[in-house]
Amino acid sequence: MKPTSNSDEDVAAVLQSSESKKDSTSNEEGEEFLPGNEEPCSSSEEEKEDRKSQWRSKNGEILWCPTHEETLPYFPSSILTPGPTPYAIARISSPVSAFDLLFAEDLMQLIQHFTNLQGKRSIKDWKDVEEEELRAYMGLLILAGLYRSQHESTISLWDGVTGRVFFSATMAQKRFQQINQALRFDDRLSRSGGRENKLGPIKDLWSKWSSRLPKFFNPGRDICVDEQLVPFRGRCSFKQYMRLKPAKYGLKIWALCDVKTAYAWRLQLYTGRSESAKRQVSQGMQVVLDLTDGLKGHTVTMDNFFTSFPLAEELRKRKMALVGTLRINKPELPPQLLNIQHRELMSSVFAFSHNAALVSYVPKKSRNVLLLSTKHREPQVESSGKKKPQIILDYNKCKGAVDHLDQVCGNYSCRRRTRRWPMCLLYHMLDVSCYNAFVLFTAVDTEWNRGKGHIRRLYIDQVGRALIAPTMMKRNYLPRTPFALSLVLQAQGKEQQKQVKEEEQQEEQEEEQQEEEWESPSKKRMQCASCKQRKRIINNCSRCGAPVCKIHLKTLCALCYKK
């Protein structure tokens, strides 16, 4: 038993020595990290301090930092060439040619086909409308908007005293009303889809027209996404109410516009939620992704309906930046940006992630403005004035592109009163086409009426006149009013003068050819057949070929020459 006791004593001695060593090391460590010492902290304590300095979002998925030290710099991804595309530049030679790019021949033929189909069904004395006559109808609508007469009745527009000369000179009032009544964009009897096909009456025309807008223009670095409201108070299954819009009721359109020119690059009509579909949670995000499809290297400005952190990440994958306002209930916001009770007026608080920046700005008491940006990576604030952050300044510069489009289209809108929502949409298509064509033409021909303040009015006037001119020249039944009659005769007279000049040129060429044929091959001078005196000449009669001098040479006009 002695050996066992000795072994137990040895184990106890070893344990005691190890405990004494632990105590000594703990005492030494305690002496090294006294509060007065200035030695650096361990890595675990640094991580704890970093976590305390970071702000976690309300959903707990995003960490924000009050400084931008760890934020990556922003570099635009590609070099852009804004303006008309080479395809458009090669085909634009006049104001109306730019309009024809957007409202092309295939669109006119589609409207012509279904309008004639409806006219034969509903109007007794219907005469098929031709493409030139349909273009003249649209030209009259455009001119009515130019003269601010879109709300006048057709009786007033065609009146000999109060009306406009171009209307009665182009077509009869009854014919205009017939076309307006029969105008259709599809066949109602063969329409498919039922109630789910809400856009059926104008679906083909809208899809073809809207798909042409991006083909002719490259937007600049800054683009804007917002909503439009086309005024309409008639019956429509997807009519919307928007209390902040002047019209209140109408058709909602999502629009993407170039900030510099307000060119409508892509439009998407909102037809409402279908009865069988569930509510879409991220509708704003899907709208922006659809509108920006095919773009790269741009900065998208939007309001708080669209802006979200997941959308910013998706756009970043497409190499695009985002600048937009945020709603307070967004889950990606940290609580530190929402508390403004003890904040000073015109103060800004920033929060940064690796690829985004948040700012909270207090412009007045109890007012908190929140913005998200993936373009700005530094806490820049203007030094004077209201001390607005640079994010807000850039947002204010770019946010009004779609509103500017609404304004310029509304100044000379061709929109007339109607109870049919497809006609309301057609008027909007004409307004947008006129403005987009104006942007294209002035970008191609920069010297056209340069320096004039009413250049867009001049452009619309040129387009309207060019659309009605062919119909006016071919009109068989002349108008009764003297001014309209003189205008038609003047237009037709110019056309006749052109035809006479062309005929004269052809006759001159024929005479020259005949003279060359009757000239003698030796080209020797010969005696005049009608002169007794000796006269050596080289001219010959074009009919009999006899030599004749200038005295016996008779000059005839074109009509007498034919007789």
From TrEMBL:
Domain (PiggyBac transposable element-derived protein) ranges: 94-438
Superkingdom, taxonomy of origin: Eukaryota
Region (Disordered): 1-55, 498-527
InterPro entries: PGBD
Biased amino acid composition, Acidic residues: 504-519
One Pfam family this sequence matches: DDE_Tnp_1_7
Biased composition (Low complexity): 33-43
The protein's name in its UniProt record: PiggyBac transposable element-derived protein domain-containing protein
Species whose genome carries this gene: Astatotilapia calliptera (Eastern happy)
